[in-house]
Amino acid sequence: MLIIVFLFSSFIHTANAQTSNDPDSAQFAAFPKGFIASPIIMKLDKGTKKITYFGTHHTNLPGDSLFISLDRELELLSPEVILYDATENPPVFASRDSTIIISGETGYIIRYAKKKGIEYKCIEPRDSLEYADLLSRFRKKEVVLFYLCRNIVNQQRREINNNVSEDEFNRRMNGFLEFMNRRGLPLSGQELTYLYWKEEFKKLLGHPLEWRTLDNTIHYPNQFKTVLNKVSRGSDSFRNKAMIEAIFQSLTKLNRVLVTVGWAHLLMQESTIRQKWDSM
Predict the structure, then answer these.
(1) Closest by alpha carbon to 212, among 143, 147, 153, 170?
(2) Shared domain check, 169 and 111
(3) Structure pTM?
(4) Sequence-distant contacts of 226-232: CB under 8 A, at least 24 apart
(5) CATH number, domain at 103?
(6) Residue 158: per-residue pLDDT
(7) No. of H helices and E strands in the chain?
């Protein structure tokens, strides 16, 4: 059995976590807080079964060197299936660059799979299941504000947002709230408006929600600043379990599997994946 792990991080900082009443925090206690140079790549090889787990940063920049690394791993593995996180069916275009600008690395990998005739599958749990899990442990406003903050980060990252007006951004966020509602998050009336949640954000955190300058660390899972960090850890814990299950389900049918998800998921999933892999 050959197991190769490439970790391109310069230094790992230990989080100073207060873990009481936070069952999801244990896996983050030694989680990186500083700079991580991605991709982080884990390769597992046992007989005919092979996994390349490509842990990426999220990018909408066509010139990002990440895509050179990803192309190299795709060529080396020649996967039978590509598994990915984030949006299930992001827009994909004939143009490589347009696909990346709009849909990031997820759109890029789907575009690649379609061109090559390779099976591809989103390994995220159903949104309704994740919503239900989080709502069983947190207040609705904490859950909704976590998702809004995460979506705002995605909006910040896209070059197309450089000249977005406040009215247009409000419409986008209203659309996002309606999307979550259709997917199973129970929202109604004012709860379907971004302006309502801007007020709830200020009540909860004590300062206005300014989307262009939002401090991302208030909801990142490896931080311990606000309750939104805690919700984020709950979300990642739930998602990681679903992802691992989907990865090993694919291995029961196919031999060569490429997984491309955010690098943080690889760091959190690595121990469990190794244990399951060794027991195969």
Answers:
(1) 153
(2) no
(3) 0.86
(4) 227/138, 227/142, 228/142, 228/145, 228/146, 228/149, 230/22, 230/24, 230/25, 230/138, 231/134, 231/138, 231/142, 231/143, 231/146, 232/146, 232/150
(5) 3.90.190
(6) 72
(7) 8, 6
The tens digit of pLDDT for each residue in 131-190 reads 999 999 999 999 999 999 999 998 888 755 568 888 999 999 999 999 999 999 999 999
At 200, list the tokens.
């709830």
Q: Are residues 51 and 107 in the same domain?
A: yes
Chain position carrying tokens 């690595």: 270
Is there a single domain that holds both residue 118 and residue 241? yes
Domain that residue 198 falls in: 127-233
DSSP 144-167: HHHHHHHHHHHHHH-GGGTT--HH
Residues 119, 262, 40, CA angle at the centre, nearest 5°? 95
Strand, helix or coil for residue 118: coil
Q: Are 104 and 111 in contact (CB under 8 A)?
A: no
Amino acid at residue number 245: E
